[in-house]
Specification:
114 residues; seven-stranded mixed beta sheet; mainly beta
Length: 114
């Protein structure tokens, strides 16, 4: 069955960095576009970044552009999100997603606080 398992969450200070990873299994990872989304406490789901199956096309939400970098390793079946210059507004549960399929991971919690 499809599994998406996120890791790398935790506590970061404003201005700090974290790297998230999503380990994928149960489907042909290299054939699907993937994305990261987040949900802050009391707010709706916000799409953060997406990457096409071949990794050549990448898209970011304006709120993270220039600070976050999405990448993938099709051989290792992993999706990463490098997050730099974090702000308190980045406090959220971050989930990876197989675009267009409705499959989501459980997410990993990020808290940005001094």
């Amino acid at each position: 069955q499809v599994q998406l398992v996120e890791s790398g969450g935790g506590l970061a200070q404003p201005g700090g960095s974290l790297r998230l990873s999503c380990a994928a299994s149960g489907f042909t990872f290299s054939k699907y576009a993937m994305s990261w989304a987040r949900q802050a406490p009391g707010k709706g789901l916000e799409w953060v970044a997406g990457i096409y199956a071949d990794g050549d096309d990448i898209y970011y939400a304006d709120s993270v552009k220039g600070r976050f970098t999405i990448s993938r390793d099709n051989a290792e079946r992993t999706l990463d999100l490098q997050m730099n210059n974090l702000t308190p507004e980045g406090t959220a549960n971050y989930c990876c997603n197989i675009e267009g399929t409705g499959h989501w991971g459980q997410g990993t919690q990020i808290t940005v606080s001094a």
